[in-house]
Design brief:
Blueprint: H1 11-16, H2 20-25, H3 29-42, H4 45-51, E1 54-56, E2 59-60, E3 71-74, H5 103-108, H6 112-128, E4 133-134, H7 158-173, E5 178-184, E6 197-199, H8 202-209, H9 211-218, E7 224-227, E8 231-232, E9 235-236, H10 241-251, E10 257-259, H11 268-273, H12 299-306, H13 312-328, H14 344-357, E11 359-363, E12 377-381, H15 406-414, E13 419-423, H16 436-448, E14 451-457, H17 487-497, E15 501-506, E16 522-527, H18 533-541, H19 563-566, E17 576-578, H20 587-592, E18 610-621, E19 624-633, E20 639-649, E21 660-669, E22 674-681, E23 688-690, E24 695-697, E25 702-708, E26 714-721
Helix pairs in contact: 3-13, 4-13, 6-7, 6-14, 7-9, 14-18, 15-18, 16-17
Bound molecules: beta-D-glucopyranose (BGC).
Length: 723
Amino acid sequence: MFLKNRPFSFAWICLLCSPVWLRAQTLSDAAIYRKADSLIRLMTLEEKVNMIHASSSFTSGGVQRLGIPELVMSDGPHGVRMEHGRGWTELNVDDSVTYLPVGVCLAATWNPQLGYAFGTVLGSEANARGKDVILGPGICVIRTPLNGRNFEYMSEDPYLISQMVVGYIRGVQSQGIAACVKHYLANNQETNRFTINVDMPERALHEIYLPGFKAAVQQGHVLTLMGAYNRFRGQYCTENAYLINNILKSQFGFQGLVMSDWGAVHNTMEALMNGTDLEMGTDLSMLPHPDYHKFFMGDTVISLVKRGIVPESVVDEKVRRILYVMFKVHKFDSLRPEGERNTPEHQAVALKVAEEGIVLLKNEDHLLPFDQKKVKTIAVIGASADWKNAGAGGSSQVPALFEITPLQGIRDLVGPRVRVVYAPGYRIARDFHADPTMIQQAVEAARKADMVIYVGGWIHGYSNAWDDNAYDAEGVDKPNMDLPFDQDTLIQAVLQANPHTAIVLMGGGPVDMTRWIGQAKAILQAWYPGMEGGKAIAEILFGRVNPSGKLPMTFPKKLSDNPTARFDSYPRKNGFEYYSEGLFVGYRYYDTYQVQPQFCFGHGLSYTRFAYDHLQIEKSGPDSVTVRFTLQNTGKMAGAEVAQVYVHEQHPRMVRPEKELKGFQKIFLQPGETRTVTIGLPRSAFSYFDDHQMKWVMDPARFDILVGSSSADIRLKGQVDFE
Ligand code: BGC
């Protein structure tokens, strides 16, 4: 059988990447600072201030007299957003691009190389569209299943986020484009995002919420970072002294520029003194002629400096950071590689990420893969089968060149020999409730078919109007974990009509499946899988591709099982969101508190089987180990396994979660093939943040090393003693 699940060829990526000669000619940081400082010396105060705030919807101001251009930005995390011109009016231009799978689907690949490929596509296309900065990746921790923007983010686990974000950023920046990691920090919900005040225990801050950003800065060398809308410990994040000056710039050593989220600056003095470098956003009430000089970091700054209240050096430092980014993205030379968009290679990355990110959650009686040769009629049921997602979701909207829906993907794959009958079964419409006629049509189609593919789940929003009672969208959270549009009723009827039904769920996270999961033999979590998503879904359903995605977040059975429900820590009524669950986010909670999820973190099935054996744990230094084991594909199909390494501390000095992910590797194996997997665990894998000493510490203790196929399916167990 022809199988696509084999190591991805990155030969073409190498062609896209910045060539060696380009790197060789790129200026050193010291040279950049020398040039930036001599430019600053030539600038008037007014010119400097013009650079630290927006000059249109997606540009920062330049200084024409000195040949300093504007910095041009665009959303967003999974494709370059449509053109909005300088004033938020959509332009009638050819802005079509590659629509990549959303962030959570990328994370579900557990393949950092694909993170790099993804970023490279995004960088290349942003470049081709005349941008300098792409406003992604989004890496807020998935804390509640209800967050409307979870689809844009990556995971509940800081280690997985850190591994995926670095590749993404390096990929974008290999194209001479700046990535923008967002939203710093704790923008973990959309409910009241402009006003809420978040607080959390210090340990949770360092162990859960900061590591992704730290990796973005220290390993990804991200050039720009976006402050979140919300407040943290009383101060708005974008102008938060502790988060920006202390942690980001001093401790992490961030050299790039901190921009506000759009309209997230609230106070000139705080922004000036607490690390905001660039105020972005448009006061929409001022359209069509917003006066950006009237913004917090506009004329008021000039007057504060002139009155001697703020030293000019404060402004210089911001301009210096902006110029640093400009030099890095080649605004002053012609060394940026050529950008491209809508190439077959870019579409191949979109397909590959979907193929590796879609997760097979359940597959009883080997219902999947469907055997194409044995099928005459297929019923495709569910309105999401014929629904496009690219243009929705909020600021992450993408003007996709095309989008293969699941229905089209299935039709294309099975060809004209197989009859495909489509019955939507429900309508995507506000307040829709089960329609007996539509259900009847779906049931009829299911009964007459050899097999049924149900495609439902969440959508981004109605008719792409993302502020209209949307589910996976910016600005709103989901009301609950229930399937919208009364799909539970429909699914139950369809499963009863034909047990040969595979359920495909779209969406940025879990739904409550308890009403029908017992009857469903096969379930696929497809997220929003991008422009080639329909093709990838079909390939997996029919076994052309062996699924290898793993859940980057826990799927609880019910919303009430979620830690924020147990700790009653979301959403709070008084605008003060205290994360009282602390460290116990995602599987750290489910494992420690022994709550059985529907599908655990790291879960994902394959059409083949993998055997783990021969665990060896060797000390590689005074506080580090090397973990080795063999992995064999014992089935009949080539496929990939994500081998996961968790660490558990025996008798910890301070409370610690039951286990924590500290290493993983995705390994592609032919049938029968065995490979020795080697994973290093450095000191950080055993450490936690001591909030008395305010530093990372490692106990002289004994640790269990747990190797497995998911956080629950542990296959090998060993120990290491640091006592
Ligand atoms: C979003 C950001 C986005 C910005 C610009 C804001 O509303 O929160 O993620 O980058 O708009 O569109």
